C-alpha cells in the first residue's frame, strides 16, 4: 500500500506535479491568444465562452504558437533548468547551453509543446476537480447540497448520493493524482530524448574536452621541461661545487651564482604556469616564455661543459612559436644529458636549413649505462610532441659512440 501512495503523492510525484502546473502557467498567454482566434466562431458567447468546443479550440491554437516560440535557442536552457530541478532525471542527461542546431531547436520545441500541453490539461483539472470532488463527498452530510443542482446533474436517487458520495469524491481525487503522476512520468521519460544532447552537442563537448586536455598537456609539458631542467642543472652545479669546494673557490662562486639564477628564472616560470591553472586560463600562449635569445643564459647556467654554435651566425627572424619550442627542446636535451651523462661535454648546434630550423645536440655516451628511472622519463617524448605540433620531426638515438638529438622545425606557417 505504501508504494502506490508514494508513487502518487511522494516527493518526486509532487515535484512533477509542480512542473506540470508550471507548464499550465506557461500555456496561459498562448491560450488567451487562442481565444481571440476562436472567438468569431464561438457564436454569441464571446471570447470567454464556457463551451468545451471553444475552450479546446483555443487550446488547439495555443499549442502550435508555443512550439514556434520554443524554436529560439534560449528556450532550451530555461526548459532544462525547470526539468532538471523538478522532473527527477539525472542532471548529466540534459544538454547544456542554447540550442544551436536545427535538430536541437526542433527537439526543444517538441518538449515545450508536450510540457505546456500536458501542463494545461493537468492544471485545469487540478483547479476544477478538487472543489467538485469535495462537494460530492459532502453530499451525504448536507440535504441542501442533495437538493441542489448536483442532484439534477447526476440524475441519481438519494440512496446513491448518501452512500456513494464519499467513495466517488475520493476516486476523483485519486484519479487526478494518478493522471498527474502519469503525465509527470511521461515528461521524465521524454526529457533525456528531447532535452538531452544532440550529436552536434556531443561533438562540441568532445572538442571542448580535447581542447582542455591539450591545454593541460601543454602546461604539464611546460612544468616538466622548466622545473625538471632547473632541478637537474642545480643538482649538477651543486655536485660539481661540492667536489672542488676547497680547491677552486672561484668555480664554487660561479656554480652558486648559476644555481641562484636558475632558481630565480624557474620560480618566475612556475608562477606564470600556476597562475594560469588558478584562473582556468585556456589561452594558447604562456606569458614570458623564453626563446632562442635566451640560449646563452641557459647554457651559462648549465655549466662549462656545454658549447653552442650557430650556423651562418644568425637565427634572428625566427617565428616566435618556433623560437620558444626550440628553446624548450634545447633545455630538455641539456636536462637529459645532465641526468644520463653528467660531466660529459655537450655540443649544441642551431641553424637555418632552407625553410626550417635545425637543432643538433651531441654528447659522448657514458661508460656505464645510466640507471633507468621507474616508469621511464617523459622528456624525449615531450620533445617529439613539441616538434610535431609545429609540423616538424625529432629523434634521439646513439650514433657512432655519441648520443645525438636532432630536431627539425619548419619556419613557414608557424604561428607568431
Automatic annotation (TrEMBL):
Domain of life: Bacteria
Reactions the enzyme catalyzes: ATP + protein L-histidine = ADP + protein N-phospho-L-histidine
UniProt EC number: 2.7.13.3
Span of domain Signal transduction histidine kinase subgroup 3 dimerisation and phosphoacceptor: 216-280
Species: Streptomyces lavendofoliae
Transmembrane parts of this sequence: 20-42, 54-75, 110-140, 160-188
Enzyme class: transferase
Keywords linked to the UniProt accession: ATP-binding, Kinase, Membrane, Nucleotide-binding, Phosphoprotein, Transferase, Transmembrane, Transmembrane helix, Two-component regulatory system
Entry protein name: histidine kinase
Molecular function, one GO term: ATP binding
Record-linked InterPro entries: HATPase_C_sf (IPR036890), Sensor_HK_TwoCompSys (IPR050482), Sig_transdc_His_kin_sub3_dim/P (IPR011712)
UniProt lineage: Bacteria, Bacillati, Actinomycetota, Actinomycetes, Kitasatosporales
One Gene Ontology term, aspect cellular component: membrane
Pfam families given in the database record: HisKA_3
